[in-house]
UniProtKB/TrEMBL annotation, chain A:
PANTHER family: OXIDOREDUCTASE WITH IRON-SULFUR SUBUNIT, XANTHINE DEHYDROGENASE IRON-SULFUR-BINDING SUBUNIT XDHC-RELATED. Keywords: 2Fe-2S, Iron, Iron-sulfur, Metal-binding, Oxidoreductase. This is Carbon-monoxide dehydrogenase small subunit. InterPro entries: 2Fe-2S-bd, 2Fe-2S-bd_dom_sf, 2Fe-2S_ferredoxin-like_sf, 2Fe-2S_ferredoxin-type, 2Fe2S_fd_BS, Beta-grasp_dom_sf, Diverse_Oxidoreductases. Residues 4-80 form the 2Fe-2S ferredoxin-type domain. It comes from Yoonia maricola. It comes from the Bacteria. GO terms for molecular function: 2 iron, 2 sulfur cluster binding; metal ion binding; oxidoreductase activity. CDD domains: fer2 (cd00207).
Automatic annotation (TrEMBL), chain B:
It holds the Pfam family Ald_Xan_dh_C. Keywords: Molybdenum, Oxidoreductase. GO terms for molecular function: iron ion binding; oxidoreductase activity. Residues 28-134 form the Aldehyde oxidase/xanthine dehydrogenase a/b hammerhead domain. This is CO/xanthine dehydrogenase Mo-binding subunit.
Automatic annotation (TrEMBL), chain C:
This is Molybdopterin converting factor small subunit. Pfam families: ThiS. InterPro entries: Beta-grasp_dom_sf, Mopterin_synth/thiamin_S_b, ThiS/MoaD-like.
Amino acid sequence: MKTIPVETTINGDSTEFLCQPDESLLDVLRDRLGMTGAKEGCGTGDCGACSVMLDGRLVCACLVLGVEAQGAEVETIEGMANGEELHPLQRVFVEEAALQCGVCTPGILVAAKALLEKNPDPTDTEVRYWLAGNLCRCTGYDKIIKAVQTAAAEMRSA
Amino acid sequence: MAFDAQAERNFKVVGTRVARPDGIDKVTGKAAYGADISAPGMLHGRILRSPHAHARIVSIDTSAAEALAGVKAVVTGADLAQPEDEGFADVAINCLARDKVLYDGHAVAAVAATSKSIAKQAIRLIKVDYAVLPHVTDVDAAMKPDAPVVQEGRALETVPAGMSQNVTTHCQFGHGDLDAGFAKADKIIERSFKTAATHQGYIEPQACMASLGSDGRGEVWCCTQGQYMVRANCAAVLGVEESQLRITSSEIGGGFGGKTSTFIEPVALALSRKAGKPVKIVMTRDEVLKATGPTISSSMDIKIGMTKDGRITAARGELRYSGGAYPNATVDMGAQAAFAAYDLEAVETVGWNAMTNRPKEIPYRAPGAPTSIYAVESVVDELCQELGLDPLDVRLLNAARKGTLSSYGPTFNDIGLVATLEAAKAHPHYTAPLGPNQGRGLSCGFWFNFGGNTCVSLNINDDGTVGVVEGNPDIGGSRASISMMAAEELGVPYDKVRTVIADTSSLGFNDITDGSRVTFAVGLATIEAARAAIKEMCRRIAKIWDIDEDAVIWEDGCAKPAGPNAGTHPPMSLAEIAAIAGNTGGPIAGHHEVNADGAGVSFGVHLCDTEVDPETGATKILRYTVFQDAGKAVHPDYVEGQMQGGAVQGIGWALNEEYIYGEDGRLQNAGFLDYRVPVASDLPDIETVILEIPNPGHPYGVRGVGETPIVPPLAAIANAVSRAAGVRMTELPMSPPRLLKAMTG
Amino acid sequence: MVRVKLWGSLRALADGEEWVEVEASNFKELLDALAEKHPGLAPQIKRGVSLALDGVIYREAWFTKIGPENEVILMPYMVGG
Ligand code: FES
Ligand code: FES
């Protein structure tokens, strides 16, 4: 199969890569660009571990083709902190033990950030429904929901 | 190692909620899990799997795959050793089948190629000629004398003659006169139950990168609950020496018992040996569900007699478990755990294991216990309903306590069940009002907990910081707990300690991260290693002060004279002592190696409110509270996390998760869409109440907490649903169609 | 002498006895003596057993001291998740 050149922007940096026409954006990020923050839990859009933003839309990177990133803005977990400074969601997740094994965490953080950008003051139920596409097998979600709310409150008062 | 006698120990670090050391890496995406590492020149491995539930392999033709450009190696079962030890032999034929495939998804051959897509293509070019055999996937069917035989000659000596060859294990536990006990009962209920196999459902599929040279030296990077277990399995399956294999455990994306075995590492090593290059294998979710460990499936009969004031007079259980296509001992543990929460005069539990054409069972949190306790707790609840008794009072009346002859043999010493039940009774949840179609369920749970083989090495660095090296992969924050215990013992701040997980060449053998053992056993070894380092520091300071070794004590991170007779020397801090280590005899370290025992059994009680929808059969969990004895909660956040996570896995088991096999013996729901684990919107908050009844077998009183929480949810929910729906549910999962059918008759 | 209790399904392999009395001062001696007295138990002992000593479960500790005053219960070897 012939590879296709793609020009895109990832976490604000313009990036070029070659990929095969049937290659997922997740494989491109992980295998070609060395950005392994997004995880593959299923490859079928059912777990959310691969969540990234594509032109401001929350997507499963396993269901997007690499070539679809052409001309788009991609945001991943690697771009969430500002240098040393963690995003409030990241900091609160550590402080409030909202992760155990942590493999779901990058996807959940990307998804939660997308939620708070749309809805800075969600109810618990809204958080639970928004994150329903992100599986976590370790925590039972309790501390995740609470951490998202703590971070949301902090961001509102900032 | 006994509980420290000091009455009320004033913990400074233990019991606080510090930030975990791996937190930042995990929230920024930097943490490296099994699939996150690549090597120059690395090949991609892929495995061909059987489409049949049961078939003889007539021939395998790999020539077309080998001829494909980019394919560097193809292996089959013939490339692996045939270990003599039965356990290793099972691992080997499960990694790559030899004569027969035993289940849908059984690995048959593997390729390594220069790209994922070439590997995928190559797999399709392997021609396997199968002679399909009759299959059996249901445990009751497998026990019938004329059932298709999964494997021959695997029965233990305890299995009576004349049974199906699928029956591998028979066990029986108990005491007392059952007939006399049942004769005293005012009410006897006897019920049969079935539970589906479920999967641990860790979000990170198994993944590894391996390289093995023709000299037998190899390296493996993999996500596992035990790097030493991987080493032993790989050495046996490849016929190489353990010293030549170095296994490094990656960050691990969940295990729950599911990563206590080996599926792909020996295959990757075999491919690498042939190809002369490192090989990476990452399982797909479909492969994880089809070929890695689900739990047992079960069929059970429970009979319990009770007086009208709630005393249990006799209890009997018969458990039939199937752990898939290989023998296993899970039913032993299920049978021992079944009635552990009760003080019984007459009790018997009988267990059977039968092989079926399903994947090899791998432990899942408290293996064997959730299902048997589900059945027992369901019958106890029904008796309470029938006799008009309060289910909590009945549990308290019959609760096992210190001095109770347990249903599995030993007499209990200090256990926390009564206190846990009392906490549940006092909690507002227990008396909160319920609405229409709502029900409240309650269940006790039990798990043994283990200690096991453990090595820890603790180094005092020259700048006064501390390094701890341990050998158990950290699944849920154990590096934090271990650092906390080291800091506590040494009297230094938590952030002065860094704990790392060793590869197999850097530290002696450690058992796998299982049996809720890490905080208990590694913690215990860490405390001992710290005490050894302290002893050495005191010895050196005694020399400087020119006093007796015993005249130096360790307090608040400093060596101090023990009393006025020891002189008026100013205390010397750990940092000061570390700085002059070179002058006083060289580097200071402590280490401890132990096969830890005394883990202390663990009990929990779960309370659950549900609402059932009479139109759809759907169940909503309204409120859920977990009560558990943690002995001493080292890091309360992660204890709560274990309790909440276990409860939610149990909720999934109770309501939705199941392995569904078709008539053809093939798994019909090998994906997260159809194998439905709980999502955030299915659940309420999971409230937790931690009790701390010190474990006499640990210096800080710690008990393992990881497994018990998955035990009670099955019955707690079944009881809540049965009460809400007005019909006794006896089969898991209680998925909407099944519940609707029960409600509409 | 130490009395050790066998679980139900082992009794058939030990002449139907529930409690077996053997001369032993630690677990290793106990297991050796059991296997010698009742060879039918040897395969299970070889595969692995746990022992509960006064209610505390030990998986493999051979040199754990035991005496006539202790409650000693043979249990299957246990694994966890
Ligand atoms: S890997 Fe993309 S949703 Fe699971
Ligand atoms: S923390 Fe392990 S899956 Fe979420």
